[in-house]
Write a structure and sequence with these properties.
The protein has 341 residues and is of the alpha/beta class. It folds into two domains: 3-178, NAD(P)-binding Rossmann-like Domain (Rossmann fold, 3-Layer(aba) Sandwich), CATH 3.40.50.720; 181-323, N-(1-d-carboxylethyl)-l-norvaline Dehydrogenase, domain 2 (Orthogonal Bundle). It has helices at residues 11-23, 34-43, 65-69, 84-91, 116-123, 139-143, 157-167, 180-202, 207-228, 232-235, 238-249, 254-263, 268-273, 280-294, 300-310, 315-323; strands at 3-7, 26-30, 45-46, 50-54, 59-62, 74-77, 100-103, 131-134, 148-154, 172-177. The protein has an eight-stranded mixed sheet, sandwiched between helices. The chain has a two-stranded antiparallel ribbon with strand order 3-4.
């Protein structure tokens, strides 16, 4: 077995460290928070982000990039998208030259509209092409050993296969994909649709509404992805449909939970102030709306989620405006794309 490193000691980073450690790799975790580092070091548990999940002795934690990354053959960056660039810039001088670097972050940098893999390419230009890890995964269920399937994507198939080899276990099945663009877009944009699904649930709407939002949300995500250059099958796979269904349907979803509270009348400021973990969909909504404008793609669900989050529109009015849009055929145009919602 080899040496791996995880940059970021939130719930998902901790769960991945457990998977790697139990497979037999030695693992270094870099933690930004001293309290988390102390917990992992002294109690073998991250009580703040993944309580009740014990880490194997092969997992070590440090607040020093050099110590956490020393000798790593595989590096997984699991950092909120708004902090991704700064954290990777700090880690970059310590990433071993031949290490394969994966992003486990699902988001888009709002100021540049760049995906995590693009930031990795900028900050680690002499390293192998980056990869991304995505799919329907809640950290708690991975940490507790539920069978899980996900995908590692890279423009370099050998990089993707190496990531697959490093991570695949009898409880953690990893597929490969060469459509890194589609995998990242799907992983980021599903959080925006999950906010919408949560808003619908908060308004008291039930299964019909959730199914409609998931289906038409997937149409929007696919339409934008195709316009940018992604491949249609990706959006029907684990990183697309799989992750979208999970995030829109479960109470474990932070983004859905934010939506539920919005639908019940709380303000975004109140909700975010009460949360320790990040709901990526809030910031991603701004990026998704801008991408839709840049590529001239209609994304009505994204538009209405944006209106609720940032323009003060009531969830009831947004729902009515979505339902009363001009009637359209379900599918139109070429390339297998769906019509506007």
């Amino acid at each position: 077995m080899g040496r791996a490193a995880v940059i970021g000691a939130g719930g998902w980073g901790t769960a991945l460290a457990k998977v790697l450690g139990e497979k037999g790799h030695s693992v270094g975790i870099w933690s930004y928070e001293e309290s988390v580092a102390v917990q992992i070091r002294e109690e073998r548990e991250n009580r703040d982000y993944l309580p009740g999940v014990k880490l194997p002795p092969t997992v070590e934690v440090s607040m020093d990039h050099g110590a956490a990354l020393d000798g790593a053959e595989m590096v997984i960056a699991v950092v909120p998208s708004h902090a991704f660039r700064d954290v990777i810039a700090g880690a970059a001088p310590h990433v071993p030259p031949n290490a394969i670097v994966l992003s486990g972050t699902k988001g888009i940098e709002v100021s540049t509209l760049e995906r995590p893999s693009e930031i990795l390419e900028e900050l680690l230009p002499k390293h192998p092409p980056p990869a991304v890890l995505s799919g329907p995964t809640f950290a708690r269920e991975v940490g507790e050993g539920d069978p899980t399937a996900l995908v590692v994507a890279s423009s370099d198939v050998e990089v993707a296969r190496e990531g697959q080899h490093y991570l695949n276990t009898d409880r953690f099945r990893v597929y490969t994909n060469e459509d890194i663009l589609g995998v990242e877009l799907a992983g980021a944009l599903k959080n925006v649709i999950a906010l919408g699904a949560g808003i619908a649930a908060g308004l008291g709407y039930r299964s019909n509404s959730r199914a409609a939002l998931i289906t038409r949300g997937l149409a929007e995500i696919t339409r934008l992805g195709l316009a940018i250059g992604a491949k249609a099958p990706t959006f029907a796979g684990l990183a697309g449909l799989g992750d979208l269904v999970l995030t829109c349907s479960s109470e474990l979803s932070r983004n859905r939970t934010v939506g539920v509270r919005l639908g019940r009348g709380e303000t975004l400021e109140e909700i975010l102030a009460s949360m320790k973990m990040v709901a990526e969909g809030v910031k991603t909504t701004k990026a998704a709306r801008q991408l839709a404008s840049d590529y001239n793609v209609e994304m009505p669900i994204v538009e209405e989620v944006h209106n609720i989050l940032f323009e003060g529109k009531s969830p009831e009015r947004a729902t009515a405006d979505l339902m009363l849009r001009e009637p359209k055929p379900e599918v139109w145009g070429g390339r297998g794309s769906s019509d506007a919602t």
